[in-house]
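Pasting two entries for a bug report.
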Amino acid sequence: MMLIPAHHFRNIERKPEYLQPEKCVPPPHPSAVGTMWFIRDGCGIACAIVTWFLVLYAEFVVLFVMLIPSRDYVYSIINGIVFNLLAFLALASHCRAMLTDPGAVPKGNATKEFIESLQLKPGQVVYKCPKCCSIKPDRAHHCSVCKRCIRKMDHHCPWVNNCVGENNQKYFVLFTMYIALISLHALIMVGFHFLHCFEEDWTKCSSFSPPTTVILLILLCFEGLLFLIFTSVMFGTQVHSICTDETGIERLKRKHQPRQHTGSWESVKQTFGGDFSLNWFNPFSGPCHPEPLRDRDWVRQVASLSDTDNTETTTEEQSEEGKYKDSVEVIDE
């Protein structure tokens, strides 16, 4: 149960009419099609297509410019297997990160009946998101692109066209790790290929003409260097967030909303799916499934108020006590 800072208390509405039940209809029943999750965002879809195109371009250059024309068959086979395996794992992680529900809160559950069923006690409040009409549990934040509140939302990533949240953070971490590895692998192979071609005739180094070969290799080198830096930084940031049990949004709000942190190792195990094993690196193995939200998970505890806030609240409670005994306390966030 999270302690709410006192300054939020000024936004509390005690009238049940505030819930606007006519606007907050009960959430729809789950679709029979399945649990497929896909965000229809033009920018995100374009970024996801570009991601796949760049990986496939690297595949083309590595295979048809460097490995297949090589006379060292052992070198070509080993590097071909390693590069293709890492590329497959990277694209599989990308698909899982993009098509997995990141932890969306049920939409439209901020109804009068549902909040009254929580039976709030004195000093307890619930957070209502006015954008998606949902009750926000602890550590949930609204995403303007997904148009949903996401549990443990770290950020919205256009490259995977999805939020990075409680259920898909593992896949995003694996995606950044495998992209960084294939970028490093490609840069090493480009370096060896240039050294080999300088020592021999360029016409024997590739099936393409020397100018075309040089252009393709330079483009791959630029792509590999750019994505190695970018994904390495993202990987380190995500690992740090998991170990500290603090998302990017929570890090920005740390001064205003202090909270207790769980042990770093427990957070890592929850994210990657149990004790350390090879499944940690498997994009087809999911994280530990969180328990279904219970009534107490929707409720938060108000922190101690200052003297001024106490005066304001007491006056309000005295004036409303007789008329709204069954009212609820909702914070519009």
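Entry 2 (this is the one that rendered wrong in the viewer):
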Amino acid sequence: MPRRPMRHRGLVISRPLTFSQFARQSAARIASVYTAKRQMHTAEVLQKSPPNSAGNKSVKNKLKAKKEQSESSEEEEFDGNVQVDFAFFDPKADDFHGVKTLLQTYLDDKEWDLSGFVDLILEQTTVGSVVKIEDDEDNGIFALVTALNLGRYKDQKCMTEIKEFLLKVSQEDVIDDLRSLLGKEAHSVGLLVSQRVTNLAPQLLPPLYDGLFNEVSWATEDEPTEELKNSFRFKFYIIVAKFYKLKTADQKRKHNVNEEAIIYLKPEDEIFHKLSSWSFEFSLNSPQIAPHELRNYQQTGLVMSVKADKISTFQQQLQSLIEEP
């Protein structure tokens, strides 16, 4: 089925939410690291085109950046252009190992059917994207984003194990709400899965999420059966994430009064957290290697429920955050 081209919508820049200092610094730090490696001079988002007649997967959205590197030291001189094309692709079978690597600790250290979960993601080609460097022979996966209907896949072993895990780590004050979303309301719940490498260019995040939510909307009209169309009419999203939390309540007084209580690994998770209807934290058992500046923090699991009608606000706030100087 032909895919619609990306609709370019003007985002209303508003700031009804405030972001932590770390969230702003995190986006800035990622941008500075990326820019230090490859000085960015131009960037443009290109419209995606439909699949060609040979059935090749389409490039769904491309952030094309022309970078220039130069060294003026006596030891090394470089004068030239290095161009890297980040492209959004439909997931495919060849992406299995890259996607599985990104999701290795999705459920902490639990042994579960991760391979089956990756298969579901790769089989759902109408909604979801992987980010690669175009024409990269290594076929490396830099990011993944998708949304899977909990009801549609309720009989899959991997989905049953995800539900069992969430109920096991849940907290008493929200467990009834969680049971409801995992049970009787599951057909209107999307499991929003978003994983990526640490230093992915933050400029990619708004088009990446815009592309996902556009595809969800299009799927409600373009899928071949009414059942499939309904499977993308989400009313809620469940998001499993991680963040850093001060190890003890008085660490702030002991070490640095400017330290924040919570530091998000991904800046957009702070937006989701603020917009969530409910959330809960859970302890992690997998080995953790934190950077030195986070030595006073403990990595913690986070589960959030976000109503689908909050997504437009999320998109606006994400754009605002990335554009902040």
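Dev reply: Rendering is fixed now. As a check, the viewer should reflect this: The beta strands are 39-46, 59-71, 78-89, 129-133, 143-149, 189-196, 236-246, 262-264, 278-283, 297-307.
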